[in-house]
Design brief:
Length: 121
Amino acid sequence: QCGSNTASLAGWWLVAASGAQQPPRPSVSLHPSQGVSVGDNVTLWCHTPRPALWVWLHQEGRSTYGRMLDEERDATEFPFASTVRDDAGTYRCQYEVSDSQDTSQMSDPVELVLTGEGDAD
């Protein structure tokens, strides 16, 4: 009887410890959220449920933008000035928790759609 209690306590500890290592998933949003044309300014915001010192914005199949923050924040902006066609695409973000240095899962995706032709390359 004593052995089974010890095993269940050890199992609970493992679950609790592993759960503590995965920070809550962030969310990403676009401002403005629609009607963005080539050449316009747009800002992507990564909203972090826990204070973060590192935030990454991933453009699917293309680039990753990392920002080390000078202070803990719950939202980080990634401004795009004078957007070009290559800026269009699917974006996700993730962050590193400042106190434990654990990295979150990726956010759900957001799609940046650009209208207009822009300059030919």
